[in-house]
Predict the 3D structure of the following.
Amino acid sequence: MRALLQKFAATPNPRIYACLDEHGICRAFRRSAQPPGPAGWHEVKEQRLAWLGAPLPKSAFTRH
């Protein structure tokens, strides 16, 4: 019964966050259902490894 309930329980979809340093350079990505924590993490539409070590384009950020 527990397995059936877990199958149909609402699980939040993980979202993608990018960690930006004080200069706006992308330092890390993380998938999480909630924001990862302290300031510096911003939700983005997608994860591209080419963005690591570079500023993110304005089109990368999500709008709520």
Q: What stands out?
A: The longest strand covers residues 26-32. Residues 11-60 form one domain. The chain has one domain: 11-60. The two ends are 37 Å apart (CA to CA).
